[in-house]
Structures are given as structure tokens and as C-alpha cells.
Design a protein that fits this description.
The structure holds three protein chains of three kinds. The C terminus of chain A is likely disordered. A two-stranded antiparallel ribbon of chain A has the order 1-4. In chain A, strands 2-3 form a two-stranded antiparallel ribbon. In chain A, about 70% of the residues lie in helices and about 5% in strands. Chain A contains eleven helices and four strands. By secondary structure, chain A is mainly alpha-helical. Chain B has two domains: about 200 residues, Response regulator (Rossmann fold, 3-Layer(aba) Sandwich), CATH 3.40.50; about 140 residues, Response regulator (Rossmann fold). In chain B, strands 8-7-9-10-11-14-15 form a seven-stranded mixed beta sheet. In chain B, strands 2-3-1-4-5-6 form a six-stranded mixed beta sheet. In chain B, helix 2 packs across helix 13, helix 6 crosses helix 7 and helix 13 packs across helix 14. In chain B, about 60% of the residues are buried. By secondary structure, chain C is mainly α. Chain C has one domain. Chain C is built from 16 helices and four strands. Chain C has a two-stranded antiparallel ribbon. The C terminus of chain C is likely disordered. The chains are: A mainly alpha, B alpha/beta, C mainly alpha. Chains A and C meet through helix 4, helix 9 and helix 11 of A and helix 6, helix 13 and helix 15 of C.
Chain lengths: ~290, ~375, ~350
């Protein structure tokens, strides 16, 4: 029994860890701006394309940091151009702007790549095949959950024990008051987007090593699932987002194992609706200490 | 603002449709060059363009007409295909060639039928393309045939239980999968069927399902985008049984995915570049020279000069269209539609003659193996169905 | 009062002129022309955009489920109207399917709307208790779930699974030669009904809810009932819009009703102005004309003399298009019409001063 389930669990934990990397970006931004950043999944996709184009001319060791820097820059620019001008506008406007950015990024990537799937470069270490009991898998499957946990712990430390972390928590509790207290709102928000985008970039490195084709819309579904994970875990809570993402990743694979493959995506949304209706604060929503 | 808008609208409405130069006839090319099937669609366009460079004019009623190709991208999506088809029709094409992919052909078919423009299917293999549309003809074999061929081949490989994986909403794959299942069951085999949704990248669970169900062959007709992912993940999970698919997999994307990995991938297709018939041989050498002369064409072909079967079919489709135009003796779509059923043509992919439904009577498929060491397709055998 | 009568007469004349214009264009430009395509598709999108505006613009409910309800309507229409003789071929993998009768076009249209409304009523009960962006994401989720269910193989005999539905009556064979007129008629009646609703006491209640939920409730407006009503009515017309879209397309597949479709309609609504029916209508025609026709040259690699025009390549059209949309969203947040209507422009201009855009 365990032998048959093991490959599914492995795949689930791995993909869940990758969702978690994206979910952190959603949960941070929502915690501060109360905005579902629809463009976040596309920033994740862009990170994939950056890697493909950079490795075409640069060695992988140099490409990886550059990918993270470029992705962070993209996240920063998106916030400054599309969200900052709307800070005082109704929430609906800023969400529409997010949808517009997502539309723009997808079309732009479509234009640049010619709409064809691109093959992701092989990362020598992560792509190695290993045997684990009855299952054979890529090394990235094992590394992803470890790396995810490590980064999440680091992030929680950052938020709880540094000055900028304190500022982020203050802004998330009360936007205007924290402004009055002398917190530079705009730089706090930028930092939020920078952290979120950096996590998405690392997530994309892991994700595309496992699933090696990048298309302009490839990030849309993982993006939505990561958002659901963030809601499930309690929006604003970073550990919650991680646990939510892992649960979703595992459930998705178990559902496929049960033969209900057509519903593996729909399941995520059903879970979302159930959570929203019966426990809108999510699993860890009340714990304000984790909130940013 | 409003007045300005009205003025702009009025001016736009008055812009006349493209004026045709004298003695020019337009042939529409209805193909995906972007999206899931973009890679294959581009190869099909190359075949048509090459045919156009070989035979740039056609004789209509004693006068030489220049053939102009109008290429429209249907983006591999059934909803985009409709506007692409409308755009072709509005540019007054006399006949349409395409498409790669059955779903888009079925969606575009209605537009062509309503406008009375005949269309020649190049590599769309679903029966409904011609069955449900009076203005569609086709020059390749059909899925019931192809599915049976692959089922026979799977049996010959010694398989007893097949795992069939297709994409929801893709008429080509779903159809071909069903025919494979029917044929494989008729041969006494067992089948496990599953679908994935558009945009899936995580195939690990599907491959696990195949392995844990004890399947000893996998049949996965789908777009090359997904094929590359399936092959890569199957190799990562150490899958030892062969993976079979239909004509779409005869593409460089498959070779790249399989290269250097311990995996067995077979596909069926319409044509083999090592065919030694005279027409085929001269097409292959001419087409390779034409490709190698232009680096952008080479890129569109997937970065090498391997001749894809769909390019050969594109070449044949163009020539069938010319034959129909000559037979009709007119550039009028209605006359061409009337002449098409009677056209016979000796193509590089075999003899082409249409039956009552509008399908070419073809009864041979080529099975190829994606060689992971050489990164090329090895010809395995030709296979037809014993009735 | 007299002035009101005048305005009504003028409005009716304008509508009549639009119908006559559509009729004439189709008969002069010929059915192959892109103008006809734009008029058909633009009208269909106009209805869908107005139905979405009823929710998002007039009631202030940020719903992203429109594509799901269109899907339901389109499927209901197609399933009911495929001719008996063709069913075996269409449902080739499902032995001809379960439905073994056909109904007329107009009853099927009505059923399409009703089925979509029924789905909306069921979904609305739990979902409408959510607020703001949670409602948005929940409705988006439901649209995806509906799409997954329709594609489910087990109910394949009903929906043909994920395969294409074809051979149902399309615009061309309902009123041959007068496709534009037919579309305009159906869409016109539907939009007229929506306008009547908006100008009724219910409509005023919707707007009150949009402007301030607490105040509206204090005024004795039953929040849930009115939200539910707006949701159901909006979905009813989205269902009819979906059926019209199916008629326009000639073939139908669940796969094309993705969330991207909802986003497109939302952007149309925003361009036209959240809370303006005439704005949505104008924006629909503009949007469709640009994407299907005027901007198509951006996708074609063009040679000017010997020089290849830079940037023009497949996909460029959509880039330009999305940049324009971002500009509207960021700098012209009111869109073409804001919350006003075309027929109100005369008197409001003096009252409020200049208008935007």
C-alpha cells in the first residue's frame, strides 16, 4: 500500500512546496494591500522565461542569480506602475488593474516567444535521478520541501525580528496609522513585492526543473492554486500558506491516483469555496503574530 | 469624442476589402503557428510554401494566374480558429488548406461552408472534420485507421494492458484514443483510460497510475508541448514500457525530449523521408535544399532539416488545390468545390482520390521510433490494417 | 415630462437607425465582410458585457463567474437544438447521446437563460454571503468547476464530454441573410429588459447596495435577496449571451470558456464604464472591432519597400491591445461613459460640467 502511494506522496510534497513558494507572495501582498495580485502567477512564468533566455548565452551559475534579480525587478516595476497610482482608488479598481497586468504580461510573453513552448534548461544537480524505496524521481523532489521550509523559517524570522518586518506588520494592521507613525508605506510595499517575487523566482527554478516546458500561460494555474493555498492557510500567515500549499499538492496527486483526473483542478476550487464558507480565516488566520 | 468616434468608425467601415491584382488567385493557409500545436503547424506551412515556390502559377482557362498564399494563424484554439477563418474568407481566398489539428478544422469548417469556400484538410485526422462539413476534403488517413494501426503495433510489441492518456477538449487526441481503445480491446487487450486538462505540467501522477495499474504500454496522442513533458517525466520515473502516439509526435520536440534518456517512444505517421519512390525522393532532396538556404525556415522546421510528414502532406495539399483549380477552369470557390471530388493526384505521400465523404483513400501508416542516441527518427515498418 | 417624451422618441429613433444600419451594412457589404462579423460578435459581447455590468457596475458585486454561466447557456442551447439526424455523428463516442429530441431556436434560447439562472441561484446561495475579492475568487472557482463538470466523461452522453458540439442552428441558418438583424433584435430585447430592471425600484435598490451596503440595509433593503436577484438575472442574460455566442461561432467547446474570457469581458465593462449600459455596448463593439479587424495588421509581418517593419509579428496586436487597456485602467478609470448613459449626456453636462474622455 505504502509502496504504491509513495510516488504520489513524493510528487505531491514536491509540487506543494513549489506552490508554497508562490503562495508566500500572495499572502504577503494580500496581508498588506488587501489585493489579490493576479499577476503573480505570470511573474512566476516570466522567471521561467528569463532562465531560458539567459542560459542560452550565460553559464547556469551566473544565470540563477540574474533570474532572481530580473524577477524581483519585474515585481517591483509592476507594483510601481500598476498598483501605486491606484492606492487611494476603490479596491475593485486595483484588482482590475492586477487582471490587466496579468493580461499584458501573458500577451507580452506570447509575443516574445512566438507562443511556442520552450524547453527549460537542465540544472545539473537538481535534475539527477535518484531511487527512493520503490520510487524513482528527480533530486529536486527531495530538495524542494527542505528548501521551502528553510526559506519560510527565514522569512518568519525576518518579519518577527527585524525593523522592516515590524514595519510590514504595522502596515498590515493599519495602513493609515502606520503612515502617521512615520513608516514609509511605499518602501514597505516595495519590499513586500521584492520578497514575493524572489520567492516566485526560486519556486520557478524548482518547478520547471520538474516540469520542463514553459509556455506563456503555464503560471496561471499554479498561481491560482497558490492563491487558494494562501486562503486555505489563512491569508497573511506565511506558515499557513506553506501548509496549505503542501496539503493542496498532496491532495491533487491523491485525487489523480484515485482516477478522478478531470477533477484535480476543480478540487482546489471546491476546497477554496468550502474554506471560505465555513472558516473564512483559514487554518491559521487568527494567529495575528504571524501576520505581516 | 463621440463625433470623432463616429467618424473613425465610418472611415473604417469604408476601407475596402483587399483589392486583387489581375490574374492572381489566393489560397488560404489555415494553420497554427502559435499555441500547443504551433511547432507542427509551422512545418505544415513550410511544406505548402515550398510547393508554392515550386509551382508559383496555375493555368486557369488558358491564362496563367499567380498564386498568392494568405497565411492566417488559428493559434491552436477552436475559438480563435473561427476569427482566423473569417479573416481568410474576408480576403477572398479561392480555396483553403489546413489545418494541423482536428478541433480547429472542425471549428473553422462552418465558416468555410457558410462562405462556400472549399477547404482541404492536410493532417487533421478526426472523422468529423469531413463528415460534418460538406466543404471539407482531406488528403491524410483517419483516426479509426490510425488508432487500429497503433493498437496492432502495441499488440506486436507484446503488450496486454494499455494506458491511454489524452487531453480533455482536444478532439484529435480524444478521438484517436477512443479508436485505439476499441481496437486494442478487440484484440483482447485491457485498457486504462485517463485525461489531463489543458495547461497541465505535472504528469507524475499519470505516469504513476500507468505503472501501478500494471500497464505495459502507454498510448498518449496529444500536442507536442505535453508530449515533451510526458517523456521527460516518464524517463525521470524510470518507466521501462514503450510510449506510443499518433502523427503529432513526429516532431523535433519529441526527439529533443527523448534524447539521451532511457525511453522507448514510437509514433505513426504519413510519410517517411527515406521513401525511395521517385516523387518522394525528389521532394525530399528539393525540400531540404530549400530549407537549408534560409536559416529562418530551418528554425521554423525545429532547427534541423529532417523532413516531417506534415510538410510532405502540405506539399501534396497545395498541389491537389492547384489540380482542382485547373480542373474547375475557374478561380471561383464554388466551381473549385464542384471540381474537387473528382480530382486524383499522385502525391509524394501516395495516391490521392476522394471518397463520398471527402476523405482520401489511404491505407498505409509508417511507424517510427525516436532514437535517443542519434536524436533522429528511425523507420520501423509500414503497417496497414488487415481487413 | 414633455422633455422626457422627446428623449424617449429620440432614443427609439436611434435604436431604429441602428437596426436599419445593421440591416443595410449586411446587405451592401456582403456576408463575407469583416464588418458583418464585427457587428455580430460585438452585439453578442454587448449583451454579455451589460449582464456583467449589472452585477459589477450597478450592484457592486465583484463577480468573475461570467464565463461559467455563458458556458452553461451555450451548452443548453446546443444540446437542445442539434438536429436528430446529426446526433449520431456529433455524439460519435457516446452512441448518439441521451437527449433524443430537439426544440426550436427561441425556446432553446429561453431555456439556455433559465438553466444559467438556475445554476446562479444554486451557487449564489452560499457564495453571495462573501464580500469583495473573496466573492470574486469564489465565483471564478465555480466557473472552473462548471467547466470541469461539463468535460467529465461520465456525463459525456449529455455534453459530448470535452469534444466539439456542432451542427446546431447557427446565425446563418436561423435568419439567412439577416444575421445582424437577428442578433441585434435578440440582444436589443435583452438589453431593453435589463434597462427596465435598472430603472425600476429594484434597480435603485441595487445601486443603493453598491454605494453603501450598511445604509441600504438600514433603509430596509433586503441585502441578500437583492444580491441574489442581481446575480440570477445577470446569469440569465449571460446564459442567453453564451447561446448567442454558440450560434455565432458555429461550434462549441467547453475549453474556450476559460477565466481569460471573463477577464476580457470585465475589461470591456471597465473600458465602457462601470455602471453604464451604453458604455458597455459601445466598448464591446470597439473591443471586438479592434481585436478582430482593425488591429489585425499588427500581427502580419509587413514589408515597406525592402525594409521589414519592426515589431510587427504574430502576437503584437494583443500586446498593443493590453497596453491600451492598462492605460484606460490607470488613467481613464471612468472609461468611456463613467456611470452615465448616452441619453443622459445632454442634461448632466450642464449640471456636472465637463466629462471625462
Amino acid at each position: 500500500m505504502f509502496d504504491t502511494l509513495l510516488p504520489y506522496l513524493l510528487a505531491g510534497i514536491s509540487v506543494g512546496g513549489q506552490y508554497a513558494m508562490i503562495a508566500v507572495g500572495y499572502t504577503l501582498v494580500y496581508g498588506i494591500l488587501r489585493l489579490i495580485n493576479f499577476a503573480h502567477g505570470d511573474i512566476f512564468t516570466a522567471a521561467g522565461f528569463f532562465m531560458i533566455y539567459l542560459t542560452a548565452s550565460l553559464p547556469i551559475g551566473l544565470s540563477i542569480p540574474l533570474v532572481i534579480i530580473l524577477t524581483v525587478a519585474l515585481g517591483f516595476v509592476v507594483e510601481r506602475v500598476a498598483y501605486k497610482p491606484l492606492r487611494s482608488a476603490p479596491r475593485m479598481s486595483i484588482m482590475i488593474s492586477a487582471i490587466g497586468v496579468s493580461y499584458l504580461l501573458q500577451n507580452l510573453m506570447w509575443y516574445i516567444t512566438g507562443g511556442l513552448a520552450k524547453q527549460y534548461p537542465v540544472l545539473p544537480f537538481l535534475s539527477q535521478t535518484i531511487r527512493l524505496g520503490s520510487a524513482t524521481t528527480k533530486l529536486v523532489t527531495i530538495i524542494t520541501p527542505l528548501l521551502t521550509v528553510g526559506l519560510v523559517v527565514a522569512l518568519v524570522m525576518l518579519i518577527n525580528h527585524t525593523k522592516i518586518g515590524m514595519a510590514m506588520r504595522a502596515v498590515s494592521v493599519d495602513f493609515e496609522t502606520s503612515q502617521l507613525m512615520g513608516i514609509k508605506i511605499n518602501s514597505v510595499i516595495s519590499v513586500t513585492f521584492v520578497i514575493g517575487s524572489a520567492m516566485a523566482a526560486i519556486g520557478s527554478l524548482l518547478y520547471f526543473t520538474n516540469y520542463t516546458a514553459v509556455t506563456p500561460t503555464v503560471g496561471a494555474m499554479p498561481g491560482l492554486k497558490a492563491f487558494v493555498a494562501a486562503v486555505f492557510g489563512g491569508i497573511g500567515s506565511i506558515p499557513g500558506a506553506m501548509i496549505g500549499a503542501l496539503i493542496i499538492g498532496i491532495c491533487e496527486n491523491l485525487i489523480k491516483a484515485a482516477g478522478l483526473t478531470a477533477f484535480s483542478d476543480a478540487f482546489t476550487f471546491a476546497l477554496l469555496i468550502v474554506v471560505l464558507l465555513f472558516r473564512p480565516t483559514g487554518l491559521f488566520g487568527e494567529k495575528t503574530t504571524d501576520k505581516v | 469624442m463621440k463625433k470623432l468616434l463616429a467618424l473613425v468608425l465610418a472611415v473604417m467601415m469604408l476601407v475596402p476589402a483587399f483589392a486583387l491584382a489581375d490574374n492572381t488567385i489566393r489560397i488560404g493557409v489555415f494553420e497554427p503557428s502559435t499555441g500547443d500545436n504551433g511547432a507542427g503547424g509551422k512545418q505544415e506551412i513550410l511544406g505548402i510554401e515550398y510547393a508554392n515556390s515550386v509551382a508559383p502559377t496555375v493555368n486557369i482557362g488558358g491564362e496563367e494566374y499567380t498564386v498568392e498564399l494568405v497565411i492566417e494563424d488559428n493559434q491552436s484554439l477552436t475559438d480563435k480558429a473561427i476569427s482566423a477563418a473569417q479573416s481568410l474568407v474576408s480576403k477572398d481566398v479561392a480555396v483553403v488548406l489546413g489545418s494541423y489539428g482536428s478541433g480547429v478544422s472542425m471549428a473553422g469548417g462552418d465558416v468555410f461552408a457558410e462562405a462556400g469556400v472549399p477547404a482541404i484538410g492536410v493532417s487533421c485526422t478526426n472523422p468529423n472534420v469531413t463528415l460534418l462539413c460538406d466543404y471539407y476534403w482531406r488528403i491524410c488517413f483517419l483516426d479509426p485507421f490510425q488508432g487500429t494501426v497503433m493498437a496492432n503495433f502495441a499488440k506486436e510489441l507484446g503488450a496486454t494492458k494499455a494506458y491511454v492518456l489524452t487531453m480533455l477538449g482536444e478532439d484529435y487526441g480524444v478521438g484517436l484514443g477512443k479508436y485505439f481503445v476499441e481496437a486494442f480491446k478487440a484484440l483482447g487487450g485491457e485498457v486504462v483510460e485517463e485525461n489531463f486538462t489543458e495547461g497541465t505540467s505535472d504528469f507524475a501522477a499519470y505516469i504513476n497510475n500507468a505503472a501501478s495499474n500494471g500497464c505495459d504500454v502507454m498510448f498518449a496522442p496529444c500536442a507536442t508541448t505535453y508530449a515533451a513533458l510526458i517523456i521527460d517525466q516518464a524517463a525521470a520515473q524510470g518507466i521501462s514500457f514503450p510510449i506510443l502516439a499518433g502523427d503529432t509526435w513526429e516532431n523535433s520536440a519529441i526527439l529533443n525530449a527523448a534524447k539521451g534518456k532511457d525511453i522507448k517512444v514510437y509514433c505513426s505517421t504519413f510519410f517517411d523521408e527515406n521513401d525511395d519512390a521517385a516523387a518522394a525522393a525528389s521532394f525530399v532532396s528539393g525540400f531540404k535544399a530549400w530549407l537549408n538556404a534560409d536559416s529562418s525556415k530551418l528554425t521554423n522546421n525545429g532547427g534541423n532539416d529532417i523532413v516531417a510528414a506534415v510538410s510532405a502532406l502540405g506539399f501534396d495539399a497545395y498541389n491537389v488545390a492547384l489540380a482542382a483549380i485547373t480542373a474547375a477552369g475557374s478561380a471561383d470557390p464554388a466551381a473549385i468545390a464542384e471540381a474537387l471530388p473528382g480530382v486524383t493526384y499522385e502525391g509524394v505521400t501516395g495516391a490521392i482520390a476522394f471518397d463520398d465523404v471527402g476523405d482520401a483513400k489511404k491505407d498505409m501508416a509508417y511507424i517510427k521510433f525516436a532514437n535517443p542516441e542519434t536524436g533522429a527518427f528511425d523507420f520501423v515498418k509500414t503497417q496497414s490494417v488487415a481487413e | 415630462m414633455k422633455k422626457g417624451n422627446m428623449r424617449l422618441i429620440i432614443s427609439l429613433l436611434v435604436v431604429a437607425a441602428l437596426y436599419a444600419g445593421g440591416f443595410l451594412i449586411e446587405h451592401t457589404a456582403g456576408s463575407k465582410s469583416m464588418v458583418v462579423t464585427v457587428l455580430q460578435k460585438g452585439a453578442v459581447y454587448a449583451l454579455i458585457a451589460v449582464s456583467m455590468n449589472l452585477l459589477n457596475g450597478f450592484t457592486g458585486l465583484f463577480s468573475l463567474g461570467q464565463a461559467g454561466f455563458m458556458l452553461v447557456g451555450a451548452y443548453a442551447y446546443a444540446i437542445l437544438t442539434i438536429p436528430m439526424a446529426k446526433r449520431a455523428a456529433v455524439y460519435q463516442y457516446y452512441d448518439g447521446g441521451w437527449v433524443q429530441f430537439t426544440v426550436g431556436v427561441l425556446p432553446a434560447l429561453l431555456v439556455a437563460g433559465l438553466v444559467a439562472a438556475l445554476f446562479a441561484a444554486l451557487i449564489g446561495m452560499p457564495v453571495l454571503r462573501l464580500k469583495g475579492d473573496y466573492l470574486a475568487i469564489a465565483t471564478l472557482g465555480f466557473a472552473e468547476i462548471i467547466r470541469a463538470i461539463v468535460q467529465w466523461d461520465t456525463i459525456g452522453p449529455l455534453t459530448n464530454g470535452s469534444n466539439l458540439l456542432k451542427t446546431y442552428p447557427t446565425l446563418k441558418n436561423i435568419m439567412p441573410g439577416n444575421t445582424v438583424l437577428f442578433t441585434f433584435l435578440v440582444v436589443g430585447v435583452c438589453i431593453g429588459l435589463i434597462l427596465l430592471l435598472i430603472n425600476s425600484t429594484y434597480g435603485r435598490a441595487f445601486k443603493a447596495i453598491r454605494d453603501d451596503e450598511v445604509a441600504a440595509e438600514a433603509m430596509g433593503i433586503n441585502l441578500f435577496r437583492h444580491k441574489q436577484m442581481a446575480f440570477v438575472v445577470s446569469s440569465f442574460f449571460a446564459g442567453i449571451g453564451g447561446a448567442l455566442l454558440a450560434m455565432y461561432q458555429g461550434s462549441l467547446q467547453a475549453n474556450s470558456f476559460k477565466s481569460a474570457m471573463t477577464y476580457e469581458i470585465l475589461l470591456i465593462v471597465v473600458i465602457g464604464g462601470l455602471g453604464s449600459v451604453s458604455g458597455s455596448v459601445m466598448a464591446s463593439f470597439l473591443f471586438i472591432a479592434c481585436s478582430e479587424w482593425w488591429l489585425r495588421f499588427l500581427d502580419a509581418e509587413t514589408m515597406l519597400g525592402n525594409v521589414q517593419v519592426p515589431l510587427l509579428a504574430p502576437g503584437f496586436r494583443m500586446v498593443v491591445f493590453s497596453v491600451v487597456i492598462m492605460v484606460v485602467v490607470l488613467f481613464f478609470r471612468k472609461g468611456i461613459m463613467g456611470t452615465r448613459e448616452l441619453w443622459e449626456l445632454g442634461n448632466r453636462r450642464q449640471a456636472k460640467g465637463g466629462r471625462k474622455s
